Each structure stands twice: as structure tokens, then as C-alpha cells.
Amino acid sequence: MNDRASAEPPPGALPAPPGATQRAVTRADDGPTQHGAARRDADATAPHGHHGGKAALALAALGVVFGDIGTSPLYALKECVSGTHGVPPTPDNVLGLLSLLFWSLMMVVTVKYVTFITRADNDGEGGILALLALVPERLRASGTQGVGWLAGLVVLGAALLYGDGVITPAISVLSAMEGLEVATTALKPFVVPLTCAILVGLFSVQRWGTARVGKVFGPIMVLWFTALAALGLVFIARNPAVLAALSPVHAARFFAAHGLHGVAILGSVVLVITGGEALYADMGHFGRGPIRLAWYAIALPALVLNYFGQGALLLQTPEAAANPFFAMVPKGPLTYALVALAAMATVIASQALISGAYSLTHQAIQLGYLPRTQVRHTSSEAAGQIYIPLTNWALAAGCLALVLIFQQSSRLAAAYGIAVTGTMGITSIVFFIVMRHTWRAPLAKALPLLILFLSFDLPFFGANLIKFLDGGYVPAVIAAVLFIMMVIWKRGRAILAERFTRAAPSVSAFVRELDAKCRARVPGTAVFLSSRAGKTPYALTHHLRHNKVLHETVVILTVVTEHVPRVADRERLDVTSLDKGVHQVVVRSGFMQSTDVPALLRRAAATHGLPIDFADVAYYLGRETILATDRGRMGRITETIFAVMARNAGAVPDYFRLPPERVVEIGVQVDL
């Protein structure tokens, strides 16, 4: 036993997994009155915790949410006509490609995500893990193994989104810097160093918070989308025949003419819709209403106009296929100005995936799929705006590595797509389950939507599999590593909690036997953290068995993470006073809330009469040393990985905001 807080996450110091108690603040299977259309129609503008005008939030959302999809004109059509699987820019091909680009934007981003998927918010929070939390408990249940098939599918989708988050900043900034080569080949050696410098700067400013970053980025993105629309209009006016591509007939003719090669080209077309999943993951930062306003009023019209403008340029000047976007302005000062604006826009493009990665990580931690790490809340008004240093710099390292390895955006484009299309397909499946089992939608309504969504998701995913050996393995490897880590962590925690729950006596039994086991009571308060409500933490039984003394006031505290983003203040505390100075406190937290244990105990003292002497209180935590032998249920290799993750988890006092000088650890060796 020592007085230093360890980084090891003991069961007694971890929040109980969702569903650990009988009472839940919000159940996913409560039906549409809880999470369904009735509530959405009543409040379709902003989620919990957002303040400010809708227009102001839409402007900030434009700078964070739509940066990724807003910079796709830099490389999407270029890859279709000059990439590895590109086709010559003949009139029929250009019209066919524009038709594919337009209908991909309309059906995947506008219909699927903006119209339908964003309705599946969990009290304002979006993203694939928030979507999982809407699934009824009976379908999420995984027994003692930690991860069921549906949860495993969602975890895979989350892992794929991380892979997308590593590639997006790299390809976006690199493609903008390559505009310098259009102006003059003499600047080619500076492209990669400038890209790396910009990426370092981008990740360095993340600590300022999403709101401050969005306020700076929003006006720049308005200028960017205005430039996109203006350039597009100029060339459409010169060749209005390009508007014929609005008809899906040209897309059908393109596939009829190119056969299997037409399927392969979808691997480049998908670059138009990357950012759709990030749009959903970022919903908690700004709200559904502002995001929809920014999309329909600014982002969508500007993107369509620019793509059609590039197409009109190619119809007029096919040799511009090497870089049609930068060919829209004459070489010289205008090129440099466009490169500068594109550089700023691509820095912003990265923000959507970076902010989404923060939300994803926080949700994964609270739901028990990742170890604790430091989470900083960067806004006192918007609860969803957070900054996670470890996630930030891990993404930064990955982006820099990709830029240095691939060197060119066209090579990185080959690595793009598998991750995002895989996540999109998984989102469609889980959304169908939410519609059927949470919102009670009839099969006749839910199934056509699933078929519609998958009719785009699966061809895009299949087309990107063709690029696997050309670089598509990069996000797949990243996702595989993260998926394995998340599953091992979840399963290890489940087995660990099961072992201690089985061995631990109930609190009522502990109180009955207390007088026989305790020789003396000393002044002060001892707070023991327990992973299961109603069970005595092993730190308490271990302490009493060896020391034979106990404080006059004993608080057994359990933190339960519910499957909702935030639990209302009035429902966060359950306090039960037992006999012999023992009290049970259950703290309920949403998966987007942090838990300040001392502050919550003070509230319990004020509102529930909990008799705590805060001048003389000690917090007792359990700590396990994982042995990792062949005798355990996990096996040596997986248990070793779990042990390494546990040792490197964030410190318990930091996670629960405990004063380190008042923390006492009690350790035990465990073989899982």
C-alpha cells in the first residue's frame, strides 16, 4: 500500500460499464418518444449544451464540419481524369463523371447523412458510437466476453474512422501545396516541407478549442466557398452545355461504356463525399440545425457549381486534366492567391476529422473501449467541445508519416476511401437497427432506406478495395490495430470486473459482518471507489482484512456510464445511508461527461445530507498487477497487450479529479 496514485486502472477506480445498475436514466429501447422523430421535430436546431444564434453556429460549423468535403474539388475530379484509374476527358466521360459526382453528393451526403442519419442523435451527440448507444440493450449485450457482434461491427467502424482521420489532413494540405507546382516547377522541392510545417501548426492550435478555431476558420471557409462558386459560374457561363450532367442518364451511360473500369473509377468519385461521416461525428459540436443550414445555403451550391465549372473547363481544354482546379485561374499572381486560399481551406478541412476524432475518443473511453486519457473541455457553454492531447498528437504523427512516405497527393488518394466507405456501410446497417428496434419503424419503411444507402455504400467500398495494394492497406492496418486494442480492452475489463464482482460480498453483507472484522473506528472519512453498485470493492475488504481498522464514515462510490451523452444534474446522484456509518453513492454520467468526484460528493453532502468531513477525507483505489500467464482466460499475448494498455492509462486521480495527496492505493495480483 502506498500514497501515490497509479496510472493502473483498477476496477474500483473505473466507471462501471453501461447497464451495470438496474436503473438507467435513459433506455435506448424506450421507443420514439425518447430518441425518435417526435423529439427531433420539436428540437431540430441545436443539441444540449449549445448556445448562440443559428446563423453564428452555422458559420462556425462551416469552418469545422465542412472543411473536409469543401476541399474535395482540389483533387476529386483530377483523380477521375488523370489518376491511376482515370479516364480521358472526352465530352461523354466528363458529363458521365459530373453526373456521378453530383448524384453522389445528393444521395450520400444530402439524403443519407444530412436528411436521415443526423436524425439519429443521442441527445445531440453524433458519430457511430453515439449511434450504437441508441441500440436497445438486448442487442448490445455481450455477456462476459465484452464485445458482441453488433458492438464489434461498430467498433470496427470507429477504428476505420480513425484511419480516415489520419489520411484527410495529409492529402488535403499536400494537394493544396501542389498548386505551387502549377505556378512554377521551381517550387516543387518545397511542397513536402511546407506541408509538414502547416500540419504541425494545425495540430498545435487545437488546444484553443473547437469554438475558437471555428470562429477563425468560419469566415475563411465562407471566402473559400464563395471562390468555388464564382470560379464555377465563370466556366459554366462559357459552356452551359455542361449542365446536362444533372441528368443521371449520363452516369448510366458512363457505366455502360466503361464496364468494370467504370466501377474502378468509383474509387476516385468517392473523394467527393469524404467528410460525410465526419459531419455526423461533429454534430455534437454545433447541432443538427446549424449544420443543415450551412450545407444547403452555402456548401452544397458552391461544390456543385465548382465541379460543373471544372467540367466545363475540361470540355473546352482537355489538357487541363492534370490539375483542373488550379487551371481555372491564369498562371501568375492569381495562381499564388488561389494556392494561399486553398492552403488555408485545406488546413480547415482537416478540422472536421480532428474534432470528430476527439468526440469518438471521449465516447470510446466512457463506453469502456479505450483506456482513460486526459480530456480537456474547451467551452463552458458547449459540452461537446473538447480537446484530447494524446489523440491530437497521435493523429499529427500519423499525418506527418504519410506525407513523408507518399510524397504526392495522387499516391495518397489511392490510400483514401476504404476507411470512410467501410464506416459509411456500417453506419447504414446500425441506423437500420435503430429505426427498427428503437424507433419501432415498420420494415416497409426501414428496409427501403437500408437498400438505398447500401446501393451506394457497397459499390464505393468495393471500388476502393481495388486500391488496397496501392495504398489502401494504410487505413486498413491502422483500423485493424485500433480494433484489436479496443476489443482487448473491452474484453479485459469485462473479465476483470466479472472476477471481482463474483468474489466481492454485497454491501449489505459487509455491513452485517463489520463489527466482527473491525477492531477500531478512527475519525475521518474514507471513500472507496467501486466498479459495481451494491458490491464491496476489494480495496475495502483488503484494507479491513489486513489493517483491522476503518474510518468512522465510509462512502462506497460507483460511477456508472449511461448510454446517453449527458445525465441531468437532478438524476446524477443516488445516495443510500446504511448502518454503522456506511453510505452508498452511485454517480451516473453520460458518455460525453467528465466526473469530478469531490465536487459531486460536496453536492451529495449538501442535497442528501451525506456526512463527509472534507478536511479529513481519503480516497482509496484498487490497483491490479496483471500477471499475463497461459493460465488465464485471455491468453498470454492478449493479456500482455491489456496489461500494457492498463499501465499506460491516465491516472485515476486526474480522471476523477481527485486530490493526489489524499489518494491511497491498495494492490493485488491478477491473472486474467
UniProtKB/TrEMBL annotation:
Residues 26-43 have a biased composition (Basic and acidic residues). PANTHER family: LOW AFFINITY POTASSIUM TRANSPORT SYSTEM PROTEIN KUP, OSMOTIC STRESS POTASSIUM TRANSPORTER. Pfam families: K_trans, K_trans_C. Keywords: Cell membrane, Ion transport, Membrane, Potassium, Potassium transport, Symport, Transmembrane, Transmembrane helix, Transport. This is Probable potassium transport system protein Kup. Transport of potassium into the cell. Likely operates as a K(+):H(+) symporter. It comes from Sorangium atrum. The chain crosses the membrane at residues 55-75, 95-114, 147-174, 186-205, 217-237, 257-281, 293-315, 335-361, 382-406, 412-434, 446-466, 472-489. Belongs to the HAK/KUP transporter (TC 2.A.72) family. It catalyses: K(+)(in) + H(+)(in) = K(+)(out) + H(+)(out). It is a multi-pass membrane protein. It is found in: Cell membrane; Membrane. The gene is kup. It comes from the Bacteria. InterPro entries: K+_transporter (IPR003855), K_trans_C (IPR053952), K_trans_N (IPR053951), Kup (IPR023051). The keyword Heme does not apply. Residues 523-672 form the K+ potassium transporter C-terminal domain. Residues 1-50 are annotated as: Disordered.
